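Cross-posting from the chemistry board since nobody answered there.

I work mostly on the small-molecule side, so proteins are not my area. We synthesized flavin mononucleotide and want a rough idea of how it might sit in this target. Sequence and SMILES are below. Is it possible to get a predicted 3D structure of the two together?
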Amino acid sequence: MQEKQAVELSKMAVKAGAAGIIATNTTIDYSLVKNPEAIGGISGAVLKEKAFKIFEAVAKELYGKTILISVGGIDSAEEAYKRIKAGASLVQVLSAIVFHGPTLIRNINIGLIELLKADGYENITEAIGADRK
Ligand SMILES: Cc1cc2nc3c(=O)[nH]c(=O)nc-3n(C[C@H](O)[C@H](O)[C@H](O)COP(=O)(O)O)c2cc1C
């Protein structure tokens, strides 16, 4: 899906009453992987850039107008923080837990505290959408 389509669909969903937007999921863009086997949606690190690009396009239009949730290839505190500063009130992590185990969530939380401190924020709410302001 292209950014423009994602933005239009997200805007329509909000207009129709959606309480928030998760604009991406897995992808069927098999160009992202070597030797693809067309057996379903691709998740994880390979879709990090694509998911962020779509999230950012949606956030440019809808940040402040609804709750935005970012998902796709999030595997570190740095990536979670990038999505939060781009406008995500929530982030979702799935595939990375398979590779890093459940302690990943604790490590992301610890890392987020460090990143917030380094930027002088007292709480995470202050960082949401910081790059949109
Ligand atoms: C095994 C598996 C099952 C999934 N099941 C669902 C589902 O039932 N509903 C849904 O909206 N997304 C589902 N997803 C997509 C994830 O919610 C998520 O959008 C996607 O995996 C990208 O995030 P990730 O890169 O952190 O895995 C599934 C993904 C995987 C890998």
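Reply from a structural biologist on the board:
Welcome over. Reading the output above for you: Strands lie at 20-22, 67-71, 90-92. Helices lie at 3-15, 48-62, 77-85, 95-100, 103-118, 124-127. Happy to explain the token format if needed.
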